[in-house]
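This part of the workshop introduces the protein records we will be handling. Each record describes a single protein and holds just a pair of labelled lines. Instead of coordinates, the fold is spelled out as a row of discrete tokens. To make this concrete, we reproduce a full record directly below:
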Amino acid sequence: MTDASLSTADAASAASASRLAVASQWQLVWWAFKKHRLAMMGLVVVIGLYLIAVVPGFFAINDPEQQNRRFVFHPPQTLHLIDTAEDGSWSLRPYIHPSVLKRDPVTLASVYAEDPSRKVYLRFFAEGYSYSVLGLFESRTHWLGTEEARQPVFLFGADRLGRCVFSRIMVGAQISLSVGLMGVFLSLLLGVVLGGISGYYGGRTDFVIQRVIELVLSLPTIPIWLALAAALPQNWPATLNYMMITVILSLTGWAQLARVVRGRFLSLRTEEFVTAARLDGVSESRIIFRHMLPSFASHIIASITLAVPAMILAETSLSFLGLGLQPPTISWGVLLREAQNIRSIATAPWLFAPGAMVVLAVIALNFLGDGLRDASDPYNK
């Protein structure tokens, strides 16, 4: 290696070291996070899922509440993207073949068969049923729809009432994903406040809070969820039921975070910058929220990201068992209740599609949380 190449490498190394020396904590975390490929993939998937959750009506193709006896347990339809003409030319124009209901000559069961002689063309940003956008205004625009207004599209099939499973999954994402966020927000509030008080003040306050945390952690989670959810009146409106399920999940999920926050406060309260702030006459609330919490905010964010999948799974489990959200509320757990019986498993396996969405969301959030956890301390790289 020549002297010129060595000097170039040394200059690049010095520039990189100088860049790291002047970078903020958040810049270091972001640079380390970008190197985690699975975490970046998880971030893209999570952003996509929460975009669906913000405006689920836009991504739904059919009205999720519309029932149609003609399409009971309709199987998923194949979406063709390239349309080939008789002369051999082709164009990028999505379409489906409509189904016709026939009688199986052997079993005499009703079966759906595609009619290859007919094509129902689809178009993007089509007009459809009316839905609310964040409660602000009404819209009829959907990302995909048919050119024939009365012809439904079943990308993920239909359920026992002829309702579109794909559209119901899109709408259910809003409830299932928001329960995770709201539950983690309440857990974060309890965990940071109680854990911070316990670690900062110590003494009897620390003793009492730690005994409460140990009591919460010693309780079996699933039986407590079931008992609290079963105690809710069945005649409550869907909105109140949703809020109470969120509170139930939060009351059992804050203890672990509180312990993490307590440990960090115990180690930080003797640091020089905290002592300097006290000697400067800074109030205790400002020391906690301005100096101590920001120093390990990245750890809290990583803990939150890893806690969201647990909240989603908890809501799905309660709703699947019939003790969580109830119809007509649509969530992934409520949709999975359609696949509880043998007939559904045998004749309509596509009813498990909401379970695939739960798996996708949990894996993506776990990848994202692992990446944030690894990047939260970039100095150890």
Remarks:
- The longest helix spans residues 165-201.
- DSSP finds 15 helices and six strands in the chain.
